[in-house]
Design goal:
The structure is a single chain. By secondary structure, the protein is mainly α. The protein has one domain. Helix 2 runs antiparallel to helix 3 and helix 3 packs antiparallel against helix 4. The longest helix is centred in the N-terminal third of the chain and has 23 residues.
Length: 121
């Protein structure tokens, strides 16, 4: 999804699309955007699994959490911040895949305490 967002960002906007051309224009800013997404994914995974020093100082998870949900939410949130005109497509993908993650966690309240869902279905 991140690579597609970057590629779409460099594609001219057709009249029926509701997005902005060049939010992360150029190879330098595009590679920076991909790095930010992947650091967020690393931080989410490391907070749950552990084993590495955090780049950002994120504390380890205090309880059970869905690794897949944390990774998906971290990618979603950073992509929304970097490519705000594509928020609708990011929300749609996360909404579509989110229910499969909830079955992994025995108590969904634990999940929401680890990663905050800023959007509502």
């Amino acid at each position: 999804m991140a690579i597609n967002a970057s590629g779409l960002d460099h594609t001219p906007v057709s009249p029926e699309e509701n997005r902005i051309f060049g939010e992360q224009f150029g190879p330098g800013r595009s590679s920076r955007a991909m790095a930010i997404v992947h650091v967020a994914i690393f931080e989410a995974m490391n907070a749950i699994v552990g084993g590495y020093q955090s780049y950002t100082g994120l504390a380890p998870s205090a309880g059970e959490a869905s690794l897949q949900a944390a990774i998906a939410q971290a990618a979603h949130d950073t992509l929304v911040a970097l490519f705000p005109s594509q928020t609708t497509s990011f929300d749609a993908l996360l909404t579509r895949i989110w229910p499969s993650f909830l079955t992994i966690v025995p108590r969904p309240t634990v999940l929401t305490s680890v990663i905050e869902r800023p959007w509502r279905s």
